[in-house]
Amino acid sequence: MITNHPTxxxxxxxxxxxxxxxxxxxxTTHLQFCEHCRDAVAGLxxxxxxxxGECEGTAISDRLLAxxxxxLDEEPLPETIEAAPASxxxxxxxxxxxxxxxxxxxGRSPLNWxxxxxxxxVAPISVGETAYELALHKIDAGGTTPSHDHRGMxxxxxxxxxxxxxxxxxxxxxxxxxxxxxxxxxxxxxxxACICLSVLEAPIKLQGLKRVLNPFMQFNPS
Amino acid sequence: xxxxxxxxxxxxxxxxGSHQDKSAFGAxxxxxxxxxxxxxxxxxxxxxxxxxxxxxxxxIKVWRKAPTYAPAQAAASxxxxxxxxxxxxxxxxxxxxxxxxxxxxxxxxxxxxxxxxSPFVALIQNRNAGHIKTHLKELPQEQLQVLTLMxxxxxxxQEVADELNIPLxxxxxxxxxxxxxxxxxxxxxxxxxxxxxxx
Lengths: 222, 199
Description:
Oligomer: heterodimer
Largest interface: A-B, 81 and 100 residues
Number of helices of chain A: 6
Number of strands of chain B: 0
Strand content of chain A: 15-25%
Order of helices and strands of chain B: HHHHHHHHHH
CATH architecture of chain A: Sandwich
């Protein structure tokens, strides 16, 4: 059962279009799992619809409808929108683990898995945004990650498996918000690897003995 | 009230999707294009000519996406709102100096509007619409102001806080209070949930 959700503020910024791409993708990913938040977003969208429906109309140019109709003739016939095919094949085993929604982002460039510690690996996903780093993280079954601090906010959605840290156990669909200064040490469940989608505001900083690894964690979003 | 006494916008939108009916599209255009323009101008940051460009973009997407419209999931005005919001996001990204991205990602890829909804979505939708209509006029000015800045101008909570010179926490609580008054669902995760720090 999902027990961790985006805050109402994040859902509102999502529905009003105030959010950057990477956090936006993390929210939509959570919505793939969470009926409650889908209903909340439906309500927020309905409020947008009410604002639109009741706002004061402004006269438009006489030609605009005719121009638009002309342009419709150039449009291909309306048909059910199909998801753009991924440019790169995703590893079939991985594809099975990810919600279909994510395939179009994950398949945009080859995934480059890099090992951060003996049981933690990361694969950046490029969405052409520099303010955030979007990535898949994988913790091997039974693996523990180095304890780390966050210099910026981190949003995490559990996609497959589960992990735990000092504060709780997180399952598929759980949405976690980690604030700067928050140190934690996630560990995957014994029986299954854990795959998460994460959005980092700034590179994370390792604590303790593994600090030497730190430079390698500053992967470049491109 | 308009939606109950005027033309059935939902039905017209379905007709555009199922029959590529240009007269139905024309009726939707006559009603929604001025609203869309008014909505965009109220948000500011857009010149009237650009607003018309955006209105046209939005209406062309409406034409193209109409076959995916499901009246059980959203009223026509709600669906139009999401298309207009996405169009504005793409437009702002294209014109942003910070984002030199050359890729072809568009907002409609990000939102995944067609995701499966709950089985009671039609019920919830009707209930939401009723509550919003009834209670929106009763919202205290300070709550309405925050929602207006967020919806019309696409401002984040922090940007609203900066503009009104109030703490972010106040913005969050006004949003929450307003949504409660409108009887809309909030996130199950409380905003004031204490983040536990290990050190």
